[in-house]
Amino acid sequence: MKKFFLLILFIVSGIIDAGYLTYEHYQQVIPPCTVNRLLPVASDCGRVLRSSYSVMFGIPLALAGVFQYSVLFVILIAYLVYRKKVFAFWLIIQSIIGVIFSAYFMYIQLGVLKSICIYCTYSAIISFSIFFIINKVLRKERFDLRLKVISIIYQYVAKPIFFMFDPEFIHNTHIFFGELLGKTFLKKYINWKFNYQSSKLKQKVAGINFIGPVGLAAGFDYEAKLTQILYSLGFGFQTVGTMTRLPYEGNPKPRLGRLPKSQSLMVNKGYKNIGAKLISNKLKNMNFKIPLGISIGASNNRQVNTINKAIKDITDSFKLFEKLKTKNNYYELNISCPNLVNTDLDFYKPENFRQLLQSVFRLNIKKPIFVKMPISVSDKEFTALLNILIDFKFVKGIIIGNLLKDRKNKLIDKQEVRKFKVGSFSGKPCEERSNELIKLTYKKYGKKLVIIGCGGVFNGQDAYTKIKLGASLIQLITGMIYQGPQVISQINLEIEELLEKDGFRNIYEAIGYENN
What we know:
Elements: H1 2-26, E1 42-43, H2 45-49, E2 55-56, E3 59-60, H3 61-82, H4 85-113, E4 115-116, H5 118-137, H6 139-162, H7 167-182, H8 186-194, E5 203-205, E6 208-210, E7 214-216, E8 237-243, E9 256-259, E10 264-267, H9 276-283, E11 292-296, H10 307-323, E12 330-334, H11 350-361, E13 369-373, H12 379-389, E14 395-400, H13 414-417, E15 424-425, H14 428-445, E16 450-454, H15 460-469, E17 473-476, H16 478-483, H17 487-501, H18 507-510
Parallel strand pairs: 1-4, 7-8, 7-17, 8-11, 11-12, 12-13, 13-14, 14-16, 16-17
Antiparallel strand pairs: 2-3, 5-6, 9-10, 10-15
Helix pairs in contact: 1-3, 1-5, 3-4, 4-5, 6-17, 10-11, 11-12, 15-17
Family: Belongs to the VKOR family.
Pfam family, one: VKOR
Transmembrane segments: 57-82, 89-110, 116-138
C-alpha cells in the first residue's frame, strides 16, 4: 500500500506542475526558470513554453498534462476501490502513453530547442517515476496484459495465416524454428516475454519437482527438438515422443487436420518418430530446465503383430533409455494410440495389460512411470484397467487421456468430420470424457494415483476444472495450436487467480476439491 501512496503523491505532483504551467499559459506569463549553469543546454523556459511545440492541435501541452495526470488519478482510485483488472490494464497503458510523450518532449527540449524548462523536465521525471512504480506494483497485471496483446496478434494475424497452409507443414515449420530458438540467446528474450510462473503452482509429484502444472503432451515433439525452448514459454514439464523401438515415418497422409468449429484436430500420425535409438543418443548428454518425460509405445510395424512381440518391443525401448542413462525424469507408457496398423494389439484387455505391466516391472526401473490411458472406453473397461495397474507400485499415475475415436461425438461438427476418413480427434471433443474419467479415478483411488489431465484444455478455467476434479498436472497440445504459444503462461496466471479467488493458498489444496 505504501507504493500506491507514493504513486498518488507523484500523480498529484504532476497535476500541480501541469496545472501551474496551464495557468501561466493562459495568463501569458513565463514562470521563473533557472537551472545549473554547468548544464550543456540553456535554461530558458520562455523559449520552450513559447515554441510551436508547446501547443498541439490548439491545445496547450500543459493542459494535456493536467488531463493525463487526472485520468491516472481517477483510474488509480477506481482500481484501489474495485480491484478490477480492467483498471489495472488502463493504468499500465496510460502510464506508457505518459512516458512516450515525455520522452518525445525531452528530445524536443534537448535535441531541437537546445533549452530546458525545469517544469517540463520535472513533469517528465514524474511520468517516468509513475511508469516504473506502476510496472512494479502491477507486475502480474502487466504480464497478463502483454499476454493478451500477444493473444490478439496470434488470433487475428498469425493464426489466419497459419491456417491457410497444410497443418503438418506448419507443425514442422514451428518445430524447426522452435529448435533453432532453443539454441540461441533469443530464448532468454522469449523467457522474459512469455514465461509466467508462480510459487503457488509449484509442487512435488511422484518425487519430481514441477515449477508449474502445465506440460506438453506426447505427440507434438516426437523427435525431441523442443526440449531447450519449452521452459521459456511457461511449460512446467515436457514429454517427447511417443517413441518406439523401430522408427516409423508415419501413417499415410493426411496425418493432421483441423476442425476449427469443433476446436479439434484430426490426428493420424501412428507413432511417427525416428526411433528410440536415435532419440536416446540425442538426449543422453542434454540437460533440461524442466522435468522431461519420454513416452514409449509399441512399434507401429506389421512385424510386431502379437502381444508378446509388442511387449518385448516396448521393454527393449525402456532398456535402451535406461542403458544410456538419459536424464529424463519420468516415462509414459502409451497403451492407447488409436491409429496403429495392428489394430488387434489390444492392451485394453485386462490379461494383456497385466502381462505388459509384469514385463515392465521386471526391468526394475527406478524412475516414475505414468500410463497413458484411453478415453474411448466404458467406465467398466476403464475401471478394470485401473484395478490392474494399482497393483504395480512402479506405476505412479495415469494420463487421462488419449484421442477420441468416436466420430459421432456430439461435440464434433458433422460437416468438418466428413472431410477426414481416417484418424482420431483431440481438443474440445475430448474434454467432457476426460473430466468424467478424472473424476472416476480420483473417487476410486484418491491420492494413490497421480492424475495428469489431458484433453480440451484451452484456458485456465479448463485446467482448473481438471485440477479440482483430481488432476495434479495438466497436459495440452491442441489448446496451444488454437490459442497461441502464450496460452501456457496465461493458464498459469489464470490458475493462480482462480486459486486466490477460491481461497486456496496453493495448488495442492485445490486438487480433488470438488471430488472429496
